[in-house]
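The instructor's notes for this session suggest beginning with a concrete chain rather than abstract definitions. Hand out the sequence below and ask the class to guess, before any prediction is shown, which regions might be ordered.
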Amino acid sequence: MTGPATAPKPATLQIVFDDNRLLPALFGEHDRNLAQIEQRLGVSLHYRGNVVAISGPPEAARTARDALERLYTDIRARQPAGPAEIDAILRMAAGRPEDDGASGGNEPFIQTRRKRIVARSPNQALYMRAIAESEMVFANGPAGTGKTYLAVCAAAAALTAGKVDRIVLSRPAVEAGERLGFLPGDMREKVDPYMRPLYDALYDALPAEQVVKRLETGEIEIAPLAFMRGRTLSNAFIILDEAQNTSPVQMKMALTRIGESSRMIITGDLTQVDLPVGMRSGLTDAVETLVGVPGIDFIQFTQADVVRHDLVTRIIRAYEGKTASTDKPGGAGSGS
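After discussion, reveal the predicted structure:
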């Protein structure tokens, strides 16, 4: 008989940093960056001069080493080093194969006029690569995973680099049972509330005056899905957001709008469908229908990819736990 598995022996690793001037930013005010890494990974970090010693479980120690080396590289490149950036680096370091360097130089990024955007989770890295390489990408997953934000930033980068002539951002105008006709104002005022997340991402990727100018010239078009019917969109970067709220007919119509030299990103969250009861989501239908079609990529995000406030992750986890419990026999949702 074999005995109980023994825990791996703690590992001790050392890193020597060659520029002492960067260490205050690396360690953080009152060593808060080191404390964040210790808390997340369950390791101990101690430094003397420019040498940092890491002790803890072998895998966690390697992840901490990779994270510190990546953070040091980012600081040297004048990138920010706050809690959000460290959280992103830890996600990426934990998801990297052991034989892959901490800063291998091939991690994807999006360079907009306002900032350089790097992946903050392994699935975001897959998504960014898919956007760069595929003509059409479906991204499904919960709020806060960067589906829409990264797509809009990639579109803005492509437009300013001259890779496309225009950006077309669209959403189905179905939200919590409301319809456009019941909203006050002209069409622009009716549409704007539905499109606000797209505007927010645009203003984060481009200077405000450029957003306004490009909206006026038509280089950036924001419109409800119904406005896409009958069009062929060439030399365009097309984003269909909230795609879980399309019908299969609407989805087919939207997907067949793509023209020559265009790219289309379809984002949605199949746990947040606002369609009438009994209506099949066009996103579900498309994912099932198009699997295996060349030129189309599918990215599935989970609550582990949520990069907003930690509270968002905890909320999503709580709801997923509730759904799982009510689906079990005898659960809260199984009674009469």
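Then share the key points. The CA atoms of residues 166 and 219 lie 4 Å apart. Residues 58-76 form the longest helix (19 residues).
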